Amino acid sequence: MAGLKKLIAGNWKMNMLHTDGAALARDIVGGAENIGCDLLLCPPSTLLSWIAETASGSPVFVGAQDCHEAESGAFTGDISAAMVRDAGASYVILGHSERRHGLGETDSRVQAKVSAAHGAGLVAIVCIGETEAERDAGETLDVLSAQLDGSLPADNTGAAIDGTNTVIAYEPVWAIGTGRTPTLEEVAQAHAHIRGHLESLLGEAASGIRILYGGSMKPENAGDLLATANVDGGLIGGASLSADSFLAIAKAATV
Ligand code: PGA
Prior knowledge:
Bound molecules: 2-phosphoglycolic acid
Number of strands: 8
Number of helices: 10
Strand order of the largest sheet: 1-2-3-4-5-6-7-8
Order of helices and strands: EHEHEHEHHEHHEHEHEH
Radius of gyration: 17 Å
Helix content: 25-40%
Largest sheet: 8 strands, parallel, barrel
Structural class: alpha/beta
């Protein structure tokens, strides 16, 4: 929707040790000055505090790639939303397809995580997207509706959902890391559908929620994707691992 400040988010996934990650964050922070969109770096959790320190005082936000839905307890290997916040982050990616499809994360699990994130004062980036088989079967829009219904907390159980605490990322599973993208018409259709479905769930608050596109976004295609109606930014995997390409995408979001 016109008027929303775009958000360009880098999902570093399971990449970067301290030295390289700190250098990448420094280069991005250094190049962020004349960028007119919001920038977000989502490093692995081992680097969260380092990157948050590097970004502190800059316009660059920091986020985690996941969190557990419980406040604390016997969950070996997991981190809570409060821990993410404590590390200096303000965003968390939830329901990424590599967790939904790789680790069997369900809509209801994602929903619980979104509630936990909101409870800790984090902005939740809720990822949804169809598989290739679902697209081929003509089920894309139904899948997106069902994932929104199942992954967003019912609005009377916690913080009201709006653009201050929630971002949606549309990521076709078959476009992630493959170099393939939907056509601009398909992106426009999916994003308009998501906006409409959010309106049916949330009413007016839907117009303030940013809807990112993710899946093989690079400097070469970012301008067109980001100029598409209802595309309010990007969730970038591979191309976020280089400051040059990440900042080039951010510049494409600024025009
Ligand atoms: P990609 O990943 O840009 O490497 O396709 C996007 C994502 O998984 O968020």
